[in-house]
Structures are given as structure tokens and as C-alpha cells.
Amino acid sequence: MTQTREDFEARLRRIGAERYHDLHPFHDMLHGGGCTPDQVRAWVINRYYYQHSIPMKDAAFMSRVDDPELRRKWRSRIEDHDGTDTNEGGIRRWLRLAEAVGLDPDYVASTQGVLPATKFAVDAYVRFVREKTLLEAVAASLTELFAPKIHANRIEGLLKHYDFADDSSLSYFRTRLKEAPKDVAFGLGWVLDHADTAEKQDAAANALIFKTDVLWSQLDALHSAYVAPGRIPPGGWQPGTGLLDARAA
Q1: What radius of gyration, in Å, describes the C-alpha atoms of the chain?
Q2: Which of 42, 72, 203, 225 gives the lowest tally of CB atoms within 10 Å of its CB?
């Protein structure tokens, strides 16, 4: 049975309440000041792979869209990450965070040291958006519904517990507090408008679940490699490498 617009929105929001990665123990460590400097660096390196893939995901989506109005609405997402003449963009802001935690930004941008599981998860998301229906692709982006809360908690926690945290190093998260509501307002409305059958609603909900799995699996990989039991897989970043002081030497 097709759900009402209100019931379907509530269903999507429940997915976030139950499955969003703010519930992962790694985030409890990070926001609570429990991460070592190397654990923070490992998170920055691996999360960068996700950040730098988002514009490619959005470009893949736009390449499949016939409607110019939808392309216009979606185009700002690429600009938010890649930047414009007047906006440095999220990728550059993330590299400034990398530098603040002592990493060589060129090393981070090279994506060397990214965990295999991170690559598999993020690449699967890009492929999902490229191959699935437009409805599923847009629905997968709706983790943005839950992002402002985690960004606000992250800013508060990092400022409280870590010396590297300041307005410059955390500018990525502060900017996303302004950008994400715009994106999610459009994306949520579009999904609610187009998921007009029970089958489409199920597909959209499953797409959002898939995206929460993508985010969760990245943190599982980090926790396994750098927290407990601390088994870094071949190719994963090794503490002591890729640092700014190593470049200076």
C-alpha cells in the first residue's frame, strides 16, 4: 500500500534515526576526544576519499538527467565541493583540515593510504548513482537530512578536545551547516513527489538504507584498522607517513 506523503517522510527519517553513522562508536571516540592524533589522521585521510568522490557522483547523476531544471538545481552540489571563483569549495576546506592535523595535503589528495574497504564502499556509492534509477540516486543522497546534527556535534567536540581545531580547520563543517539544508530541502521534496507508488517508496527507502550502509562501513574499516584490534590492511596508511614534517625534512 502506498504511504501518504507524511508517513513516507517519517519512514525515511526513521531510517536515519536507526542507521545513520552518528551512532557508530568511532564517532563517539572522535567527538568525545578519545581519538589519538593518528586515529584522527586516519579518519581525515579516509574521509577525504568520500569527499573527493562526491562531485564525481553528482556529475554521473547529472549526465543521466534530461530535465534542465533538475540539472540546474543539482549543479550547485558540484560547485559546493569543487569550488568556484568565489567559493574555495569543500575539497580544499577538507585539505586545510588535513594540514591542521599534521598531514601533507598533497599526500591526502593523492588518496594513497586509503583503506581498501573505504574505496569499495565509496566506489559502490558512485556506481549506485550511475546505474540505479534517478529516484534511487536522489534518495541515496538524503543522508543529508541527518548531517547538520552530526556536523554541529563534531564542531563542538573537536573544539573542546583537540588543539588543531579552530575556525579555519573546521570551516568545512561550518560551511556544510549552511549548504546541506538547501540540498536536502530540494532532494527530499523531489523524492516525496516522485515516489508515488508503494514500489517506488520501497526502492527509495532501500536506497537510503544502502547509503547509510556505505557511511557505516567506512567507520567499521577505520575502527578495525586503527582502534581495535588495530590490523592495518595492505595499502592502508601507516602512522608516521604522509606528514608535513616528513615533507619538510
Answers
A1: 18
A2: 72
**pLDDT at 247 (0 to 100):** 64
Is 5-248 in CATH node 1.20.910.10? yes
- What whole-number distance in Å separates Cα of residue 205 and Cα of residue 16? 11
CA distance 161 to 33: 5
173 to 28, 96, 168: CA distances (angstroms): 17, 12, 10
**Could you tell me the three cell numbers for 142?**
538524503
Quote the pLDDT of residue 223.
97
What's the CA gap between 45 and 61, in Å, rounded?
Answer: 25
Q: How far apart, in Å, are the Cα atoms of 2 and each of 26, 79, 98, 188?
A: 37, 36, 46, 17
Helix (H, G, I), strand (E, B) or coil at 243: strand
pLDDT at 180 (0 to 100):
83
In angstroms, the CA 39 to CA 126 distance is 26
